[in-house]
Amino acid sequence: MGKKTSVKILNEDIDFFKSFFGEKIESFEEDSRTHKMLHLALDKAHDIRKFEIELYWKRATYFFAFFTVITAAFGYLFTSEKYSLFAPGVSIIGIVLSICFIYVNKGSKYWQCNWEYLIDKLEVYITGNLYKVYFFKSTDDQRPSVSDINLLISYTICSIWHLMFFISLYMTTHWQLITFWFYLISYSISSIYILFSCRKYISSIITKEQKDLSVRNFRFRTPVYKKYHE
Q1: How far apart are CA 58 and CA 69, in angstroms?
Q2: Buried-exposed string 191-216: b where 16+ CB fall within 10 A, e elsewhere
């Protein structure tokens, strides 16, 4: 049996792998337990990344279906003489859903990138820098981001629903003060509430010492288990 190759951990990855394995590792041998764990972890990271991408588009389809229904309802109410007064209420629902759509896109993009960063860390020790390679003929080649375009669409939808709210508020309430202020207050409360409910920051789960974002930071959750006594 030939001598197995020893793989050295890069200096910038030592702290990461110390948390990853629970012990300090500076090198490992080919086909060792550490090597197999890294191989399995890389496969799992690829699988979860693909799963996140699938969920990303399923969520987008889910929201577009809702927007289709709400847009049809808004159009019907806005053009109806009898029910036009309800159009601002439907537009508020559209605003709430469009804000949720923005943050769902941001959240999906975050978790997709999270697993891509993990792949970046692991692949160099298993497959080489395969995932980091990209080809181009010149620096003028376009490389648009599909997820960024989708996020731009979600911002556009949100802006349109805000515009529809104010147009319908002006056109249908006819400056009836009670109805006007009811919709305006509902709009304000709904928008503020959904914004604060959806906004989640990394700063809420990391300590102040880890807030230097000039580099990519990582943290492992500390599991706490307790035996259940009947």
Answers
A1: 17
A2: beebeeeeeeeeeeeeeeeeeeeeee
| Whole-structure pTM value | 0.78
Q: What is the pLDDT of residues 192-220, one digit of tens each?
A: 888 888 877 666 655 555 555 556 777 77
Q: Closest Cα partner for 88 from 103, 112, 70, 65?
A: 70
Close Cβ partners of 194 (under 8 Å, ≥ 6 residues apart): 96, 99, 100
Neighbouring CB atoms inside 10 A of 106's CB total 16
Which amino acid appears at position 200 of this protein? K
Collapsing DSSP to helix, strand or coil, 4 comes out as coil
Per-residue H/E/C for 113-156: HHHHHHHHHHHCCCCCCCCCCCCCCCCCCCCCCHHHHHHHHHHH
How far is Cα 199 from Cα 201, in angstroms, rounded to an integer?
7
Q: Tell me the helices (H) and strands (E) count for the chain, helix number first.
A: 5, 2
Q: Within 13 Å and on the Cβ side, how many CA atoms surround 90? A: 22
pLDDT higher than 90, residue 93: yes
Contact 63, 96 (CB under 8 A): no
Residue 204 DSSP one-character state: G
Q: What gap in Å lies between CA 147 and CA 150, rounded to an integer?
A: 5
Q: Would you call 38 exposed, middle or buried from its count of C-beta atoms within 10 A (0-12, 13-18, 19+)? A: buried
Q: Which has more confidence, 122 or 7?
A: 122
Band the pLDDT of 44: cuts 50, 70, 90. Answer: very high
